[in-house]
Each structure stands twice: as structure tokens, then as C-alpha cells.
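USER: If only I could read C-alpha cells as easily as an amino acid sequence. It would mean a lot if you studied the pair and described how this chain folds. Here is the record:
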Amino acid sequence: MRASALLCVVLCACGDEAARRAPIVHSKQAALRPTDTTATELMWRYLGTDVVEATASDGGSFKVHYTRSGLNAVPALDADDSGVPDFVERVDETYEAVGALYHGPLGFRTPLTDGTIGDNGGDARFDVYLLDFARSADGAFRVDQCPPSQLDRCLGYVVQENDFAGYGYPNTTVATRILGSHEYFHAVQAAYDNNQGVVISEGTAVWATERFDPSTNDFELFIDGYLDRPDRSIDSPPPGPVPSFAYGSAIFFKFLTERHDDALVRKLWEHLENGHGDPLEPADLADPTFVVQLDALLKRDYGSSFAEEFAEFARWNLYLSTAGDPAQAYVEGRRYPAAASTAVTLPFQLDGQRVFYASAQYFKAPAAGRTRVTAALVDSTLTPTDDLDGLVLWLAARKVGRNTEVIRVTAGQTVDVTDGEVIAVVTNTHRGPTGTTLSQRPGLCLGTPAEVAACVVLTQGGVVDAGVDAGVIEPAPDAGVVADAGVPEPTPPAGCGCGMGTTPLWFLAVLVGRRRRTN
């Protein structure tokens, strides 16, 4: 099958993850389980001829269901002669390890119990069903029901690929560690609020996998989805069935926890439960949103704010790939792909480029013989509002792929770019739709102090003194930056809004990894 055809099949095989993000329908009766072989509405279920077994109760918190023959059969190897296939034992051990971390040191809630519903897998343990996904996906968390008394708190189970044959994982152990830590974290999220947006849901799930096992490279493969589009608002992924931007947003949560502590993500989820929003945001108490609650949490517990953190996040993202420096930013920044930037030439002028809330735009230019370079943001003449409010301007000098200087420009400060290049980062630190500002349209000037001074005059509608060589160029309207980045778009149709539940993690990682950038 050609790659394009495979992509169409994978992306249009919509199912459970899309349903998980849809409005919740409360039910007083248990939902169907994969063991109901007559449930044709289930995308993945056992066949009528399958003999389904499950791991015995041994004091653990998880129960793994499997079959030894037929389409859904797990690998038969039983090297320790325990009577249970080794693959099943590894799955069980992995989920126990995941649960021990999430509910131990990290302090997250356990999922709601299914002990009181009808079809609950036989007991109150959390259920994992091993089934053949035929490469249409590799795992999913499925909601069983949302008790009316719990509002948007829901319970469910995980379905997972039965053998990973033909998948791109290096081995079944790595595959299970990725799937178990990711999908089970969705069950944890559902214990707080199952109706949150895709960025906070998928971003923190990828973060959780990295926290559980940083050796898997899952995080490194996904964060390209965000770093290719930092000009988009952090809470507004592009439309479409594969929200790679949402999975890639894990780098934002990685930044927050490296800069502060792991407890930040747990505290954030605690305040996302309906009716439990932070009192600092009374209008957001009933049905909390993550950017609002994050801002309140940072102010209350960390002496910071969303604006301060997002500005610093943009700076940290200058220290990626060859520019990685653990003394300045991410501990493993050299392993992460660089943030996408727009290549320009000096002197550079951009007037009225839309910069959306909670986003950053990176402009890179060779020094071209210059020694010292500066930058300036200019209040646009195109709008009646203050287009500099909430904006932060970073300037980096770089040589041979490494930053030699990174400064926050407030009053014409310069950096030495001799034999190197310069990167200017325009950052909008507003938190989003609940605030008063969604986007800004500043002018940007980049060059030597004289070039920038002339550019500022031109951008403000003045006339440059004939004795000054302005040297300013006006780029084509698109300037390499997507003009509609960050605009909230409608939710994809319910029939094709696939996420992690229907798109294989390995396949999505390949798609993300193929994105092009300017390093």
C-alpha cells in the first residue's frame, strides 16, 4: 500500500479518542466491554470463538485480559513456565509500575473504580484488554461511563495492541511502556475532568510517558509537533484528525516541571475538576480551563504568572538541538529538535504581522558583515490599540549552532554577531480568550542600531533623514509566517476527529519526525 493511501486509512479510522473528546453523555448503565462479542458498535472486541483469560488476582491493581489463539492471540512464549504468556506478564508488570509512579511519588488520583458497575471485567481492578488493532491504532483509553453525581469525572478501561507485529516500535517492551504510561494517564485525567481540551489531555499524557521512562524517545519524537508551529497559540491546535501540535505541546509541560516541580501538573489537574477552579479566578470555577487555572496556580504557588512563564518558555526554546545548554534551559535540550524559524536578511522590517496570544515567532538572519545587532518592536499604525502590550522581545547571537548571547531587549541593547547569526523572538504572553487581548500586530525592526533607528521611523510613518542609510526592506506579505496561526478553529466533525485512540503512536511520531525546519 502506498504511504498516501495508508495515511488516509489511518487518519479516517476514527473512533474512541474522538468520542472521548466529544461532549459527555451521562449513563446509569455500564458501557459495553470488548468481551461482549456481539457489540458490533465497538471498533475493537474479542471474537465469539475467543477464549478470553485474565491475570489472576495477586494483590495488584490491574487485570490484563487476553486470548491465546485466533486473531487476537498474544505471543505464546512462556519462558518461565508460569502458565501465563511472558508478554501478558510484562504488560501487567508495566501497568503496575506506571500506577505505582502516578499514584505514589507523583500523587495523582486513581481512576474511578468500576467495582459497582455491571460488566466490570470481573472485579474492581483496572482493566486492560489485549486485542488486534491491525495497525489502525495501537491503544486507547475508553470511557465506560460518567456517573451523574461525578459531573465530568468518568471511568473506563484501556484496549491495547495484542502483539505489535508490524509496528515500528523497537520491541514489545518499549511499545507497552509507551502505551501503558500514555493511555493509563488518560484514565487518571478522567478522574479529574474527562472533558478537557486536546492540548492539556495529550500534552500531559506525553509528559507523563517521558516522566515514567525518558529512555523511550516518545517525547522527543512528538515535540516537533509544537516546535514546528510555535506561532500558534498554545491552546489552539490546528484542525484535522492528527493533532500533532497537541502531543507536541508536551514540551510546554516539560518546561514547567523542569523549571518548577512535578507537582505542578498534578495541581493543575486538581483545579480542572468542575467546581474546583482556583478562587483567584471566580468566573472559571464551574468549568475550568487550563490556561486560566495555570495562571492562577503559578501566581498562588510559584510566585509567577502565565505571562512570565510563557516569556521564559520562548527563551528556553532558543536552547534546543545543537544550542542545547542545561545551565540555561532543558537538561536534555540537545536531544530535542530546534524550534522552527523564518529565514530573513538584515536589515529586516516587518509591519503589522499578527502575533497571537500565547505564541512566539522566531526570525533568523546571518550577520552579513555586521558586528553588533539590535531589534525593536514598534506600535503599529494599523490598529488603534497598544500592540506592544504583553509582548516580549528576545535576541540571541549564535555561532556554529550555539548561543553566545541571549538577551531580553527593552531599550536598544545589542548582541555581538560577528561571523555568526542573530535570532529575534517576538513573544505574546497573553493567556488567551478569557483575557482582553487575543493578538497583537506590532512592527519588528532588526539590524544594526542605525538600521533599526531608521526602520522605527519608517514603521511609525515618518521620513528618514536623507543622510541615514535606512537599508530597510519590506518582505512579501507572507514573510514565511502563517498569517492565521493561532486562530481558534472549529472542532473537526465527530466522524473524523481521531487522536491517540485511533492513530498509532509510532505512525504519528513518524509523521511528526518528517516535518521540515530551519535549524
